[in-house]
Amino acid sequence: MSGPTREDERFMAAALRLARRNLGLTSTNPSVGCLIVMDGTIVGRAVTASSGRPHAETQALADAGDKARGATAYVTLEPCSHHGRTPPCADALIASGVARVVVCILDPDERVAGRGVVMLRDAGIDVDIGVLRDEGEQVLEAYLMRQRMKRPHVTLKLAVSSDGMIGRKGEGQVRITGAVSRAQVQVLRAETDAILVGVGTANADDPELTVRLPGLEERSPIRIVLDRRLDLAVGSKLVSSARNVPLIVVAGDAAYPSPRERGEGARRADEGQNSLPLSLQAGRGGDYAARRKTLEAAGVEVLNADTVQDLLTALASRGISSLLVEGGARAARQFLDAGLVDRILLYTGPATIGEEGIRSPFDRATVPAGFSLERAARYGDDIFEDYERDTGCSQA
Ligand code: AOF
Ligand code: ZN
């Protein structure tokens, strides 16, 4: 059996680049890249289609046609072995007559989990596994997190002034970063399944949280607002656009649990699953139910979750693999306190805000323990830093 070569790494790198293209577009499926290579020439290539199907391999094989016979297939994820919404890709590879398959990452999906490789080998196909595994772990990090930890991969994005503020009290959006940083955040949104803010930020800034890059609008992530009392303004851009881009409002204790309130969370109103603690409804004079109806009539989904972990579990069970927490300070703290942030993207702008600023949970000098700097860059006058946490769940 032939082992992996430098050429294998080159083609796998190309397959991974292909896979990156559809990140954020294929949920609940991972974005997978596949190349079919014959005598050093790419004869077929594809990435998982939007919404997750068809899978990469079947499209790449169709692209290659007869040229697949005797060729090598490069796939960033183990070909599937299960009859899901499409037949197994392992069968398609076998039927195509490819001689060899090079796999980057084994698929942890319990329906696959090594069976794809067994099927290929049983059919007499050479299989090499783990080529460019580290890079593959990065490209697939959100999908792998959901499969292994049953929660989405969480990225916290913060834009902080040079004196450690994220905004100004009583004001809406304050420009902290420049055009390049802001464009980068748009790309980030496009690659993410869901984006989350607290209701304070939602009501103060009235953001739409959609992707506004020409040609990428369809990649707008699901929007989520932590809003335990359903205070989100009904006339907000978020609510007004809920019929076009899904909006989930998270009531319940996952939205702003204070130690005092946490105990009250156990007492549930008799409203079925999606209920608020009785005490809070009473506090709002009973108009909670009316606000909920209004939101739902506007196409908003109201979801109840008691803890941040519960919220993440619920999101993962819907197939959401990546979550971008965009603010404000309180929402950021909640995720940090729960130990549920995997990556921090910190943008530091040159301006100072001063006394009337809203203090960031941290700045460059006080990044939480357990995160290490992976990458830094200058975007115009801004400093960009990418911190990763070792989640301890990488493939052995
Ligand atoms: C592949 N190639 O391009 C992708 C795969 O719901 P289904 O039937 O589409 O199956 C989803 C599962 O398929 C997903 O959890 C993962 O295991 C695999 N994704 N497999 O062979 C692909 N995207
Ligand atoms: Zn497949």
From TrEMBL:
- Please provide the record's keywords in A-Z order: Hydrolase, Metal-binding, Multifunctional enzyme, NADP, Oxidoreductase, Riboflavin biosynthesis, Zinc
Q: What is this protein called?
A: Riboflavin biosynthesis protein RibD
Catalysed reaction(s) here are: 5-amino-6-(5-phospho-D-ribitylamino)uracil + NADP(+) = 5-amino-6-(5-phospho-D-ribosylamino)uracil + NADPH + H(+); 2,5-diamino-6-hydroxy-4-(5-phosphoribosylamino)-pyrimidine + H2O + H(+) = 5-amino-6-(5-phospho-D-ribosylamino)uracil + NH4(+)
What organism does this protein naturally occur in? Sinorhizobium glycinis
For the keyword Cell inner membrane, the answer is no
Cofactor mode of binding and number, as noted: Binds 1 zinc ion.
A Pfam family per the record: RibD_C
Show the CDD domains listed in the entry: Riboflavin_deaminase-reductase
The entry marks the following residues as binding substrate, namely R189, L209, R212
**Function of the protein:** Converts 2,5-diamino-6-(ribosylamino)-4(3h)-pyrimidinone 5'-phosphate into 5-amino-6-(ribosylamino)-2,4(1h,3h)-pyrimidinedione 5'-phosphate.
**Active-site residues annotated for this sequence:** E57 (proton donor)
Q: Which cofactor does it need?
A: Zn(2+)
Which SUPFAM superfamilies did the record assign? Answer: Cytidine deaminase-like, Dihydrofolate reductase-like
Which stretches are tagged as biased composition: Basic and acidic residues? 259-271
Q: In which pathway does it act?
A: Cofactor biosynthesis; riboflavin biosynthesis; 5-amino-6-(D-ribitylamino)uracil from GTP: step 2/4; Cofactor biosynthesis; riboflavin biosynthesis; 5-amino-6-(D-ribitylamino)uracil from GTP: step 3/4
Residue segments, region Disordered: 258-277
Q: One MF term from GO for this chain?
A: zinc ion binding
Q: What is the lineage of its organism?
A: Bacteria, Pseudomonadati, Pseudomonadota, Alphaproteobacteria, Hyphomicrobiales
UniProt domain CMP/dCMP-type deaminase: residue ranges: 6-128
> What family is reported?
In the N-terminal section; belongs to the cytidine and deoxycytidylate deaminase family.
